[in-house]
Amino acid sequence: PQTLRAVRGEILHFLSDPAAYGAAASEHFADGILAIRDGHVAELGPAEDMLAKLPSDIVLDDYRGKLILPGFVDTHIHYAQTDIIASYGEQLLAWLERYTFPAEARFADPDHAAAVASFFCDELLRNGTTTAMAFATVHGTSVDALFEAARQRRMRLITGKVLMDRNCPDFLRDTAESGDAESRALVERWHGRDRLLYAVTPRFAATSSPEQMTRAGRLFAEHPGLYLQSHVAENRCEIEWIARLYPDARSYLNVYDGFGQLGPRSVYAHCIWLDDADRARMAATGAAMSFCPTSNLFLGSGLFDLASARAQGIRVGIGTDVGAGTSFSMLQTLNEAYKVLQLNNQRLSATDAFYLATLGGARSLYLDAQIGSFLSGHEADFVVLDPQATPLLARRMANCASLDERLFVLMMLGDDRAVAATHVMGEPAGLHPALSKNSKTV
Ligand code: GUN
Ligand code: FE
To answer: Pick from 242, 241, 218: which is nearest to 228 by CA?
Structure first.
C-alpha cells in the first residue's frame, strides 16, 4: 500500500537560479501544504486548496508558524575531522600535519569509524542537512562505516576512500594499485545502492603520485555515474608546492585537468586562487565549485570570488568543510559566506544564499532531478526552521517587513537552535527502525 502524508507551514523553494532569473525563480506559500507519497513529493499548494482534496485522515505534521525549505545540501565536508573541529593556530599545511592526519589515523579502527559516522550523520540532520558530499579517510572501512550510517538514516550521501600515496605519514599511505583496487571494490559495494553514491577521492594533487592520479581519472571516466571530489587552489603555500611538484602544469587546476579529473559530477573545494582560464575550464567541463566560507576564514586561506564563478556559469554549492570549517550549520555557513563576499566587494542576498544551500547545491551535484526543490516526484527531504527559536531571533523577526528580511535574519542569527525538525523521505529524520535493527557494518 502507498503511504501518504503531508506537512503544513510556510513553504519556500527555488525553481531556478535567482542570480540569473530574479525573484520569479522561487515559489512561496505563506500557508502551504506539501503532500508526500512514498517518500516523494506528490503535490505542493496553498493549504486551503490542498485540504479540500487530501483525505481527512491523512498524517499531517502541522508546522504553522515555521518555515519549510528543501533539506540543506553540504557539498564538501570531512566526517573524520569531526573531532578536530576548532583546532587552534595553523594554516592549511601545518594544520593537516598537526591535527588532521593524526585524527584520520584513528579510522583504521572500524569501531571508532562507526561511532563517528553515527554522530556525524545525526549532527548533519540536527542542522537540517539531508545530503552531503563527504571525504572519508584512506581506510576502506571508513567508507563502509559512513555509507552504513547514512543508509540507516535513509540519507543521500556521496563519499569515497581518500587516495594518498605520497607526501603524507606512512600510517595513512596507500599505493596507486591498492588505492585503485579498494576504490573499485567500494564502488561495487555501495555506488547506487539506496540513496548512496561513490566519489573517487584523490585528497589533492600534492598527496597523490602521477600514477595514482592517472588511475583516479581513469576510474572516474569508466563509470558514467561516479563522482570525483578533491581540493584546489585553497592556500598560497599549497599552490607553490603544487607548482614545484608539477612544473609543467599551467595552473593547479590544470593538474587535475591533465589527469581527466574535470567533468560533470567532479566537485572541487575552495577554488579561491583560480584565474579566468581555470574558471573557463570548469565551466566548459561541467565541474563544480564548493564554496567553504567558514573554512576559508578559519585557515586564513582567502576570499572566494562568487561573482566570477557566476559570470562564467559555473555550478557552485556551499560546503561546511568541517573540520577546517567551524560549523555543521548551513545557516552559520551562509552567515560567513555573506561576510566573505562583503570583503570581496560582492553581495549575497538571502534568497541567493538559500538557493545555494538547497537547489544550487543539488545542481552542483547533478542531483537537481532528485533533491533541492519540491517539484513533484522529488525526494521529500526538508528542513523546518523556527523563526522564533531564540529570544533575539523572535525580537528581530518582529521588525521584519518582508520574506527577504526574515530569511536574512535567519541566516545571520540562526544555527542548529533554529532547526525545529528535519525530514528525510517525508519522515522525521533519524535512525530508521526497519533499517537499524542489526546495525552492523558490511
Ligand atoms: N587539502 C587537502 N586536504 C585537505 C583537508 O583535509 N582540508 C582542507 N580544508 N584542505 C585540504
Ligand atoms: Fe576539505
So the answer is: 218
What's the CA-to-centroid distance between 298 and ligand 1, angstroms? 12
Distance CA 301, CA 280 (A): 22
What pLDDT, in 10s, does the model give residues 95-113? 999 999 999 999 999 999 9
Could you tell which of 138, 163, 204 is best to mutate to test the pocket of ligand 1, judged by most ligand atoms within 8 Å of the CB? 204
* CA gap 420, 416 in Å, rounded: 8
Cβ(146)–Cβ(120) under 8 Å?
Answer: yes
Ligand 2 is an ion; its neighbours by CB within 5 Å are 269, 321
Residue of the CA atom closest to atom 11 of ligand 1? 231
In the chain, the amino acid numbered 286 is G
Domains of the chain in sequence order = 4-70+373-428 (2.30.40.10), 72-328 (3.20.20.140)
Q: What's the CA-to-centroid distance between 96 and ligand 1, angstroms?
A: 7
Alpha helices (runs of H) in 127-235, residue ranges in sequence order: 140-152, 176-190, 210-222
For residue 241, count CB atoms less than 10 angstroms from its CB and return exposed for 0-12, middle for 13-18, buried for 19 or more.
Answer: middle
For ligand 1, atom 7, name the residue with the nearest CA: 324
Residue 383: beta bridge partners? 69, 422
Q: Residue for cell digits 585557515?
A: 299
Whether 310 and 316 have beta carbons less than 8 Å apart is answered as yes
pLDDT tens digit sequence for 318-362: 999 999 999 999 999 999 999 999 999 999 999 999 999 999 999
Condensed to tens digits (0 to 9), the pLDDT of residues 173-190 reads 999 999 999 999 999 999
Q: How many CB atoms lie within 10 A of CB 20?
A: 9
Cα 418 to the center of its chain, rounded Å: 19
DSSP 297: H
SS3 65: strand
| Nearest-atom index, ligand 1, CA of 78 | 6
